[in-house]
Amino acid sequence: MVTLISSINGIKNYCSFNSTKLYQRVFIKRTSSSNTKIPDVKRIRNFSIVAHVDHGKSTLADRLLEITGVIKPGTEHAQVLDQLQVERERGITVKAVTASLNYTHNNEQYLLNLIDTPGHVDFANEVVRSVSACQGVIMLVDANEGVQAQTVAVHSLAKRNNLLIIPTLNKVDLPRANPDKVKSQLKTVFDIDPATVLSISAKKGWGVEELLQAVITRIPPPIVKLDDHFKAHIIDTWHDKYRGVLCLAYIHSGKVRIGQTVKWRSGSKQHTVKFLALLRPQEEPIEEAGAGQVIMVGCGPKGGGSVGDQLLSIDCADTGDAITVAPVRHMVYAGVFPADQSQHTQLSDAIKKLALNDSAVSVTPDSSPALGQGWRVGFLGLLHLDVFTQRLLQEYKAEAILTAPSVPYKIKVKGSKIIKQYKGEEVIITNPLQLPDANNIAEYYEPLVIGTIITPVEYIGAVTSLCIDRRGTPLPSNAVDDRMTMLQYILPLSEVVVDFHDTLKSITSGFASFDYQDYGFHPSPLIRMDILLNGVLVEELSTIVHVSRLEYNARRLTEKLKEMIPRQMVQVAVQAVVGGKVYARETIKAYRKDVTAKLYGGDVTRRKKLLKQQAEGKKKMRSVANIKIPRNTFIDVLKK
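Structure tokens predicted for Translation factor GUF1 homolog, mitochondrial:
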């Protein structure tokens, strides 16, 4: 097998001109020799590890891989399932990764499909898609930190999906660990019986074997029909250089094998299954797979699907019972532009391929007079935006420029005066430039979120002041224990996505945790603020702000522009304007030549004459001059 894999790599490198066809031919031959049998459904367990950030999900996954023999103990690289460079650099999980593990319990062989999920709220979409293929979850809680905000969110998600929850305390080996206290928190917040809570140390391996046995005994096998028509739904997709789009699929019914003809629910075109594999987490090619399994499937370069779509056998009737996938609600939008327009094609290809692997982003074409042709991209948060940009650079060598992030708003357009490009009464605005004249808008709507904050009691005053300052509305609070309190506030999304989390960590010395969920659009007094340079509108710098924040934002933006815009030959007036009224102004002084430097003594009238001529020249220049802002300055301003 090893020799055959080496031969494949040699063929790919040597025959690059026709590597796709050669690789497919050898790969199909290799898979056909596999004797992997379809496991008994009763001995399949599909489960995820869910937890707050840094509670030990990836470390636990490493121990599970060691116990099941996938990797050797003491592997050089920790966090084996964190395969992306950005994950290793930042120490966070960005992508949910699947590993199919073989484990023997009571002399019976079990197939355990483990899905390691991210913990940060910006990647919650990965968790939502992962649990759709699971029957249970391991809810990991740090025995030092206790219940955190994201713990509340993942518990709620598991309950909504009717999943069995195995509550597990991690890091019990640390001196500060207090398992009894954390168990009481779980009882108070989630009504979990302390007797059902397991205690482990993922780092040292304590209790992990017992956890694996609990997965088998507590989590039920998948409820599927092996004798029915083949039907699977897509959890994830990614792009392979030689094989095209590959999909991670959970099989609901029936069987699939290499060479079988299938179709996508979203289209009538038929495709042939060319690649099947279990992820362990490296690919292990198989010849066929059955209901209840989580597998990788590929239908060739032109047979790719999308996340949430269904793969069906050609004789499977469209019964209308599609797997419902909740639509992604994008929290932040930003403009993405190439550093140079000559790199537009390269960046376009990179964004399309990365969007396959990150289905939570939305991409629409956009343009800017200052930055050229680009895209308006929707993200789930600022960290998601940052990671997306970093992956573009690291994985595809594509350098991108990002404009200042903004949140989506909704407007209600007045009666018959609907602007032509808007169809319907309510319109989602993702770019301030799309906002029509205020006379045509009946009402503005702002996106709100319900923020959950778990903080020590001594910081309640500081946290409350922060939330009220960010226009928050309090909801009933609950005590987690005698030291920790759970606060909930309805907050505007625009006040949360930028620096709320950093400020919260700062005022609570890092002890508070924060998570939020969508609360929909609600009426709000919003207004569009424009920036004028010597009376000329600069469209790229327009923003949508709340009326109560208008003067503060106006002063802050004009002061920032004064620092960043280079001096010109003429004086430049920077004005923040709303409806013709100036709310803030800064002046950038012009370059000035000392025309009187050559005078030594003499009559003062000569000096006045030269200064008068200079003033008249400046006035004439100002009347005809265009204020030109260098592209790099525009980039700096927009990125801020």
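The two ends are 53 Å apart (CA to CA).
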